[in-house]
Amino acid sequence: MENSQKGFIPVMLTPFLSNGNIDYPALTQLTEIYLQAGSSGLFANCLSSEMFELSDKERIQAIKHVIKVVDGAVPVVATGTFGGEISKQADFVKEVSDAGVEAVIAITSLLAEENETDEIFNERVFDLLDQTDKIPLGFYECPVPYKRILKPAQLADFVSTGRVIYHKDTCLDLGQIKEKLKLTAGRTFGLYDAYIVHAVESLKAGASGLSCIQGNYFPELIVWLCDHYDDEAFKDEVQMVQQFLIDNMDVMHNVYPVVSKYFLQKRGLNISTFTRRNVGSFTPSIIKEVETLFDDYTLLRNNLNIKVFI
């Protein structure tokens, strides 16, 4: 997923009906919003999608639904490893690949236990590569069940196989990101940073783009940042957007993804705030914070003349 233009890859939500079933009409509308905002790809079946609360059948159905709505407009990646023996994980990787994704994403913390060494992890990665034919893969340093960060040299070894084309980075360390980019330069590979605090610096360092939860509030703002991060004519505005995102980090992470679904309701999307994952109480004080965020974003968006579709 390498591209000279910086791109935004949303980590997709899964809308649910009040009875807990997947709300496919809302998923259609949400997918279209990501596309209309200018996203350069989509990450389906990820932590924001509540992937651990979905059955294998639901995971595949949701991925296929997204791919059908996208209809080839942008590439879609999706998680395909959920623990167990590598042979079992490889089987599901093949199933996800058959759904039509650009790359199947492996969760780093599900390939080795927290107390297992990098050597064991590396062996399992190469085993997974061996057992999944020529399927393009990617990595996601998911914080659940624990966060396993790839060292720059590890990532470089995996990318050098020609099979690993995508990486969603959550190390929160700009120095590590720069080293990862240096060691994977010239490869057909894209590193997408999840940490919005140093978004501009990461893009300037050579990251292919951003893949952050903030896109589940205002995808068009993240696309705008990817388009203008290095534009001298918009230097002040870029700094304003970066600071806005930093200032609202806590609000956007608190009882997520309930808060983002509520925010999308405020925008006009017909989506419930139902989540299968227990993320805590959506209290009146949190609601007030999200409403303030909505008002502040509306003002910022108008100042930047950003077009929105809902």
Describe the model.
This protein has a single domain, classed as Alpha-Beta Barrel (TIM Barrel). α1 (24-36) packs across α2 (56-70), α3 crosses α4 and α11 (258-267) packs across α12 (284-304). The chain is of the alpha/beta class and 310 residues long. It starts with 6 loop residues before the first strand and ends in a 6-residue tail after the last helix. It has an eight-stranded parallel beta sheet. Helices cover 45% and strands 10% of the residues. α5 (152-159) links the parallel β5 and β6 (164-169). It is globular.
Features:
alpha/beta; 12 helices; 10% strand; 4-hydroxy-tetrahydrodipicolinate synthase activity
Specify Rg, calculated over alpha carbons: 19 Å
Low-pLDDT parts are none
Strand order of the largest sheet: 1-8-7-6-5-4-3-2
CATH topology-level fold name = TIM Barrel
Largest sheet: 8 strands, parallel
**Separation, N- and C-terminal Cα atoms:** 28 Å
Can you write the helix and strand succession as a string?
EHEHEHEHEHEHEHEHHHHH
The helix/strand class is alpha/beta
Number of helices: 12
Q: Hey, roughly how much beta strand do the residues contain?
A: 5-15%
Number of domains: 1
How would you name the CATH homologous superfamily?
Aldolase class I
CATH class: Alpha Beta
What does the average pLDDT come to?
Answer: 97
Task: Give helix % range.
Answer: 40-55%
Envelope shape: globular
Number of strand elements: 8
Overall CATH architecture: Alpha-Beta Barrel
